[in-house]
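User: structure tokens for this one?
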Amino acid sequence: MNQATLELTSLSASAADGARATTLEDPCGFDIGWDHAHHGLVPPAELLLDGTAIGQGWRAGRAVFGRRTLSGNRHTRAWLALRIRAWRQGAAFDAQQVNAAYLAQLDTPRCPVRRTPLGGPVGHEDAAVIERLNPHAAYAAGNLAVMSHGAARAWEGVDVLDALRRARAAERSGETVAGLDAGAWWRVATLRACTQPLPFHEAASLPLAVLPPNRVRVLNAVQGLQALVSRLFLLPGWSARTRALAQLLPAHTLRPDYNLFIGAVAPRIIEAGNEPAALRRAVEDAWLHERVQRRWQHWVLSLGEAGTESLLKCAADTGLAGVRTVCHPLEQATEGWGLAIDSSSALRPPARRPAPQAGRQRTAPPPLRPVVRGSGGRPASAR
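Assistant:
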């Protein structure tokens, strides 16, 4: 019997030794190149040089997979591009939870900051980009949201206090500040605050100018309660749902304050009508009205931090929000974020490793693991 000889592509001894050395020196970069090859995709040209970990991983993957590649889509490409960005920045990336399927769940038709439709080529003002809401945390589940390129450029390096200052400055002048109007800066402050543990009284003073995007983990219970109350108004029958939430409050103490707050919001909801997009905007904008904020703060500060956490958990368990809402302890909500949180909930950014350069290798990063310490009872996500 004649047996055909198969020609198998293999690495040379020197190439194999180089690939093994690169794996030890920079496993993140090597894995990025390997996964590009596994999906039949090519990394940017400048990262394919012989001295780069990504180039070594891609060549090794090509030798192993050949044409036996996995199918991919735009979410696969976005996942690989996001990993390259994190690699360039020297930032941690939680590859266990953040994958192409997860990124697909972040899709949204409009920018949560500028409220403009998303679309266009890379670099266009309205092009969709994936950003970290807390820039000190890793590229991890719960810390990512899709927004426009213009919004991402405007809020770069801006923290909660900076966003609040710019929002008030834009309100006073009636003009845009750094390309965003007052409402957009209020929404920036909301998104930044959602993923940063704040003292209770500070979080209670912030308006929820934008509903948290899908899969975002809200670390402050008071903002979690704001989001839950906001969602009561987004579906028909909101009057019955707001009354159901009132039944969870003590009848003669906190319930009257809650009813006054709902009474301040309700007229703006009625004016918006039943069109979903208009209704959502009306709910978000209602938080920026002075009367709504005054009624809200009077009620929630009387409720207190423990009462807020208890009410939120009870309301989430009963499904009042209309969407699946899950409450997690803070250490579980920030799993994979790489943050250190002390007993006063003040954030300390993690140590940064230097960003890699094309053509040079970098040292291996420390293993990605949660390093948080804190108390439980805070909301994590709405799905």
